[in-house]
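2024-03-11 09:14:02 INFO receiving multi-entity request
2024-03-11 09:14:02 INFO entity count = two
2024-03-11 09:14:03 INFO echoing inputs for audit
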Amino acid sequence: MRLDDSAIRAARSFRRMLLAVLVCVSVASATSRAVPRAQNLLNKKAPGFALTDLSGQSLTLAQFEGKVVLLNFWATWCAPCQVEMPVFAAWQRKYGPQGLQIIGISMDDEVGPARSLAATLQLNYPVAMGDERLGARYGGVLGLPLTLLIDRNGIVRSRFQGETDLKPIERQVAALLTQP
Amino acid sequence: MRFSLSKRAVMVAVLAMLCSLQGRAASQWAPLSPASASSIPQSQLIQPDELNQLLHTRGAEKPLILQVGSHVLFAQAHIAGSEYAGPGSQDAGVQQLRARLASLPRKTLIVIYCGCCPWSRCPNVGPAYKALTEMGFTRVKVLYLADNLGADWADKGFPVETGR
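2024-03-11 09:21:47 INFO inference complete, emitting structure
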């Protein structure tokens, strides 16, 4: 009988310990000090995605295999983004025949403003809505604009964040287009 | 004579340096619009290191920290313990912020932040700061994130959480 009591006490103590460990693990996973960043993606395969663009068409990264992809994260409230997007549309016209594909990912909370701005700017490339899951797959989109250049083999070659001089990006696009 | 010349040279160099700093500061803080982040008085800003230290100081008064930007960005990463309060650039966001704070004592220590884009381009913190001052809050600080939350907070290893 005494043995049974001690066994029960041991089981309770083990249960409490297990609970404490579970609580610690859940707190640790909720409070992450090191959010993975997009730099980590450089020279690595770009994460694939399957989205629906603003016109209702399927939009995947895989469908542009063999092309140079300029992946641009933007939002309607981001002033520098609105400076870049008409330039990207011009690049789509200029470099599209050579194999450039621009993809826009809006990080807006709602689709309405994104759709309206895309129409106003007459964007000639597909745009889809992003979310925190896509952001996390791309290493955390914790500031806009963010542009990634992906080569014809699907490898992330460059990352540009914030208000950026577009000339170096264009030079890099042109260089990537000459590569197999 | 030699001493006097070198002293003068040092003075000229110092003056030149001050002038260049002043020019830089002027351009950095020149208001883009009445509600832009650059319109917030420098005295009301708190630097990331300072806030992080405050959060880790035992016994220090902990501020109520509110993110006043995009919900998608908040879900990806936000300052540990902070709350989402709605985008300051939208009327609905300001209303959400006002509703959250309506019943709080006006002496509550509050830190607001966004970090969506470079500081001078942030459309959210300016209107949010304005709303708080209009409501009569006297201890409001705005977190100065020069580039964005990633570069100026998360990358420094300061505490962040994910999720909505």
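2024-03-11 09:21:48 INFO post-check: The helical segments of chain B are 2-29, 48-56, 71-76, 91-101, 125-134, 149-152.
2024-03-11 09:21:48 INFO post-check: The radius of gyration of chain B is 19 Å.
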